[in-house]
Amino acid sequence: MRVPAPNVLHATFRVPPHVGDEAASFVEPLGCCLRAVRRARVDPGDTAVVVGLGSIGCLFVQLLTRAGAAVVGCDPLADRAELAVRLGAAVAGPPDAARRAQHELSGGRGADLVVVTGGGADVLPWAAESLRDGGTVHYFAGGGGAALPLRLEALYHRELTITATYSSSPADLAEAFRLIETGAVDVGRLFTHRVPLERLASGVDLMRRREALKVYVTP
């Protein structure tokens, strides 16, 4: 295996025994989530909605809660919604329940932030309707659609902001490693299945059917 020198210098960490390989595998995705939270500029007391409660969504739930936000999780799968609550979300459930929860938590104003972790552009109208005037939608996932289905008039008159992040910086990775090393972010509960390499196809199938949250593949 060949690793670029900058990665070795700035993005390589010595994994202590109490962390282990499984938890360490979350350093990169957690670093990307950290970058997104910083870009979205969350303030204590904000109401934040996380759309999609897979492993990435559950990382966002924890980071936004740590930032002082009241977090609402949105996912039609009950087991994922239940896990999000155990990880710090105030409420989690399908779209209708999430909409009611953010309305109540925000005192009727609407959410300050909606983080989209899945669903692509189709989620944008729902996300925009969930926001207060001046709120922010942060896209953390690609998806179908070549255009954003939101009228420019709505974006302009409501002063909405749309942001997106794709990767992480060395500083984000270092902070992610620290959060995992100290247990400040729980990644252990995000692994639902473990399969050997020869059963990789079955692990992928579990993810495709949304029967697994995170599959760890061993050599």
What is the level-2 CATH architecture name of the largest domain?
Answer: Alpha-Beta Complex
Number of domains: 2
Relevant CATH superfamily of the largest domain: Medium-chain alcohol dehydrogenases, catalytic domain
| SSE pattern, N- to C-terminal | HHHEHEHEHEHEHEHEHE
Biggest sheet overview: 6 strands, parallel
Number of helices: 10
Q: Please list the strands of the largest sheet in the order they lie side by side.
A: 3-2-1-4-5-6
As for the CATH topology of the largest domain, it is Quinone Oxidoreductase, Chain A, domain 1
CATH first level of the largest domain: which class? Answer: Alpha Beta
Describe the structure in your own words:
- The protein is of the alpha/beta class and 219 residues long.
- It folds into two domains: 168 residues, Alpha-Beta Complex (Quinone Oxidoreductase, Chain A, domain 1); 30 residues, no CATH class.
- Helix 3 packs across helix 4 and helix 3 packs across helix 9.
- The two termini are 15 Å apart.
